[in-house]
Amino acid sequence: MNFVPGIFILASIATVLSLDNGLMRTPPMGWMAWERYRCDIDCVSDPKNCISEALFIDMADRLAEDGWRELGYDHIMIDDCWTAMLRDEEGRLQPDPLRFPGGMLKLAQYVHDRGLKLGIYADIGKFTCMGYPGTTLDKIQIDAQTFANWTIDYLKFDGCYSSTDEQEKGYPLMSKALNATGRPIGYSCSWPAYQGGLPPKINYTFLGEICNAWRNYDDIQDSWDSVLGIVDWFFNNQDHLQPAAGPGRWNDPDMLIIGNFGLSLDQSRSQMALWAIMAAPLIMSNDLRTISSSSRNILQNKVLIGISQDPLGFQGRRLLKEKSQIEIFWRPLSHAASALVFFSRRSDMPYRYQTSLARLNYTTGSYKVLDVFTGETASFPSHTTEFTVSINPSGVVMWYVCPTSRWMHHEKEEGRRWKNRISSPKHHRLNTGSRMFL
Amino acid sequence: MNFVPGIFILASIATVLSLDNGLMRTPPMGWMAWERYRCDIDCVSDPKNCISEALFIDMADRLAEDGWRELGYDHIMIDDCWTAMLRDEEGRLQPDPLRFPGGMLKLAQYVHDRGLKLGIYADIGKFTCMGYPGTTLDKIQIDAQTFANWTIDYLKFDGCYSSTDEQEKGYPLMSKALNATGRPIGYSCSWPAYQGGLPPKINYTFLGEICNAWRNYDDIQDSWDSVLGIVDWFFNNQDHLQPAAGPGRWNDPDMLIIGNFGLSLDQSRSQMALWAIMAAPLIMSNDLRTISSSSRNILQNKVLIGISQDPLGFQGRRLLKEKSQIEIFWRPLSHAASALVFFSRRSDMPYRYQTSLARLNYTTGSYKVLDVFTGETASFPSHTTEFTVSINPSGVVMWYVCPTSRWMHHEKEEGRRWKNRISSPKHHRLNTGSRMFL
Question: Taking the model in full, what pTM does it have?
């Protein structure tokens, strides 16, 4: 594998500089309410879908019982619209009493009892994006302590109704306040998204020191156009963004919308593949109570999750944009392996793309590849071996690529690694080794 | 039902003026190669998908064996790229000898033996769109006769590489030439699509006298954006287009792409619902050998096909565009019934839309409705009864609506009508009455 030396160096530095709370060494996985349920607070007309403890209990049950948790989807995140319109008499945020009658500590206990982590939402401005009480600078300490008291595990800190100055002060302050509680709380910052997401306005080195993840760009919507817009922005700006990511510090292109209404199956595979290439958080926002088996199969693809969660934590890059509207993406993985995604932006018919690993910057040698979605394997006696992949319109072909000499070695190595994870009570993962390294 | 009187009058005139070959009294249904298979002529690398007699035999088998024909999908249409690059020594078009070794007469026989009709493609210009031999003015008569000799049942006559003048002469000339063969051949004209599709450049009254259907606008592509663009154009121009349609003369917004790669399930339901509202040809372009059951269920929805094929043949209209991005479409049907489509252009979450039939121009009375996709029924004691429908992002809710007083009557009426069709060997339709009129 022809690693770009620069990435190695930056990543080594990054590991030293990242937020030292030991959390999110791989991109976080789980479920978040926002994209699918928004600010639906009408529990009278829409009791199954309104933002309420019942919704989070439903989804916690599904994460725990339908095989999600074991694959790594272990966070359940509340987003906006959970609070009452007023703080309590001691100045603390409080959940809406009608929609969260049991309170947050009890909800967190329910979530923890099922081996999951609970995420919550606040906003550095005067109000949250939907107009609920904000966490202004003077409230940061008390809110951090409230979240810790509730045994919250993750905070999404939004930036509506705040000034540049308040963001500059508030995001680092919340980082310190969370650390000061003594409870490990993953910290996701929306700061970059409010400042255009790019240097020099954004200092990603500094951001990596104070946040575990950050939203760089616009909110995702339930449409393929939205996914394409996000993909374009992240890869057009990969020279700035890619070196910023690493264990404990991740770019977040926003939630997975797989299982909702706007993506075809091929487009769903494309979002999943490209999010794994980006080392992005895999945070679904969908209805796990009614999700189709075809969407579930994509989200629960073990090889793909293994690529997403590769312990090196390198974010991948776009290698090529062809005139044929085929684009190639690549992510280096542990043990000299890598992931390749062949993506078609065409809207006519499956395109037969011919190339060789040599033309995709792979170094001399023989390789074995595993098709992530079909499970098929292939051997290339040489990096110059020509091959053809058939790529569906708005779809992908995704490969796990490995030098032949390391293939069997990986089988043993990875088998051990996954076995270790299973034996650890904190990780509820399945052994993916058997399928990943046939 | 509050019919718009103007529509009645125009439709009555139209019936008199439409092409008098007795064909396509309801919008044609079937399968066409273009959108899914384009000009793939590489039968060496891609033998299952190249334009060849094997492809049409495969699809004819599927239409005949998988329940399509019985529902009305009885046309199988060849598009561009079927000919040899040269005419034969007598000046006749001939199929590519390697890809159609059995010849067209034999293929037509195969298709007819399975109770299907065969469509073919030609172009009024010097070349077809993909550069194959065109049917210039001097070749119209011989090509019409060749098609009749081959026992062809339908002709799509394209307009690439032709002048406005050649179109003005050629499209009527082909109509006469087809009639002169004595064989009933459905005639689809691409003329309007080459002239902007609108009056005064297009005279739809005249077009209805010479063509059974016509393409008004751009080719469909395998994307939701393409479907939306087509829907917008047709309904933005409904005042010109809607009165042009009627039995034997149809606007054609192009093929159904359901079952391919670019549409979600909700978007697939939306295309099917809106095409039925438009009284559009239901011509699939997909792979019937591998189509998913969920796509098949949408395309084979009997109530929906019944609406599409309503014998009155009124094209529907967009009634409303709400600020909430909900749009309402309506089509009047036989026996005082009608179809309603509630369509969401949102990309966030299901939208709860509240209205009443009265606000959708329905006249005083009580109504029963049947949800086309769920099969559920509901009764409205009054046209002013308020109701709420939940519409998915990029999805539809589609209703068959009937005055309560006619509901039982319809059950008998429609039962008889469908029964008659079944007893006729020319129609291979199932009795949809039982489900449509619960």
Answer: 0.92
